[in-house]
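Hey team,

Filing this mostly as a record. A colleague (T.K.) asked me to run one chain through the structure pipeline before their review meeting, and I want the input and output archived in the tracker in case anyone asks later how it was produced. No errors, nothing strange. Just documentation.

Input sequence:
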Amino acid sequence: MLNPFSVLIIDDDPAHRRLVSEVISGQLGRARAEETGAGGLDSFLTEPADLVMLDLGLPDLDGFEVCRRLRLLPGGADTFILLLSGRRDLADRVAGLHAGADDYLVKPIDLYELSLRVKAIQRRKGRPATDGSAALQVASWRLDPASRSLKRADGEVSLTPAEFQLLAYMMARPATICSSEQLLQDVWHYPARTGSPDLVRFHVRNLRKKLEPDPEQPQWLVSVPHHGYKIQPPSA
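Output structure:
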């Protein structure tokens, strides 16, 4: 394998680091691990990874801060960040995704589920949500793959990888209702009946905060009760 899928594990639990490293290295790619946020950032700066598995409960830096800093490093904008947390508080997951993470797993982690997630991330990395490098245009919204941003009359909005791929998928299908299950399979590339609808809901919420004049009364990225979401320009 000339370019093995690389995984950086940032976790202060030595037993967990060892177990996850063995699972990754055994069948899924090449893993390396750090026990502190600062060590993880230095490691990524030296050698960017395709996937960063980031524990929120680190001894030095807040996991949310590590996530934000990772996104600013060379290569950090394109890496997939998977949060690991023993916290079951919904607010922590929302904060982590808002800080730039793509997905999360709650500890204790089921190794089979971990394997499925990593394989899905590998598929996602190899299959971008847009066709080639063509920009997508819906009314006044223009999605630019080169800068991974949304351009509109009032300026340009930067997006995380997950936000970009989710928005690209929906903008390629304007006025089409996309269910959470469909989005989990086609955007995140999770097998059927895996992944959580909460993940889609969190990212939709973050997109609305960035893009809608009033996130509580969305005009573009609208919900269709009991069915899913769709891109619907206000003028339509």
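Quick notes for T.K.: The longest helix spans residues 111-126. The chain has two domains: 6-126, 136-231.
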